[in-house]
Structure of GTP 3',8-cyclase MoaA:
Amino acid sequence: MLQDSFGRRFYYLRLSITDVCNFRCQYCLPDGYQGQAQQFLSLNEIDTLVNAFAQMGTSKIRVTGGEPTLRRDIVDVVASCAQTEGISKVAMTTHAGKLASLAEPLAQAGLKQVNISLDSLEPAQFALLSGQDKLNAVLDGVESAIVEGMNVKVNAVLLRPWAEAQLRDFTAWLKDMPVTVRFIELMETGQHKAFFKSHHVSAEPHLAALKAQGWQVLPRGKDAGPAIELAHPDYVGRIGFIMPYSSDFCDSCNRLRITALGKLHLCLFSEQGLDLRESLESGNVQAVKDFVASSLADKKVSHYLQEGITGITKNLSMLGG
Ligand code: SAM
């Protein structure tokens, strides 16, 4: 099992398979994707990578991007991860614009969990925040994933001045929706420092207000990530909070990240990506294992976001959020 010098164990890999995204979320790619066409990891390279991580104790893979469903071979990528010995859970983070038609083949390929990014249930607000007038397509994607029996989580970034409306609308929606809505505090990234300053809002008062309304914090599993989850007897769905600015956030870090170009990031906000591409291209599983195991000694105790340090992360589409 991969373990760092602070005793944290890493059984969870976030694998970006493309940088490209066709949404224009205001806090991520407000001007749309600006990159050049690049040689993203091939299926063979993904296979080598996932085998190496599985042999080092990784049991969960999250496929992310950019927008992972923009890759034509997305179903094969999921199948390849799901069929790897030692991998018990494959999840995906997506904007879900294409999920209505993909949910069935993805479920058949072994996708167990989908995290859908959805910042507003109000059509005009959704279009304003995401740059795409596609709320209905996204909601159809949510339905299709539920029908396929996937564990569905919705990620909503809390934003000033809309946070109260976000909380109100999503909470009402959860009365009958069997999903978990996780409210994420906006994180500062290299390209969006001004947006962060004007729109970041703390989740603390919202968490306190929900507790006062009878929402109860669920016990955290031993290997749980940093989300705090709440349930209420009158609601089918659950609520979660991801608060990267809380002081103990990094204590439960259990994940490593690989970019679509084959770089290992020890943290979402690391100063550099560590290049694995040569070993991936040559299919050298042992070299990947050696590289990852020795790199882990450099993992820092914190992301240092509280100090405004954002590393090389210009926006989260580079790495997958
Ligand atoms: N395209 C996919 C999607 O829309 O879910 C995957 C990539 S997207 C970068 C992953 C997640 O990161 C989304 O839920 C998005 O809301 C979140 N995200 C992006 N920038 C963020 C920021 N600055 N702070 C907090 N969350 C952010």
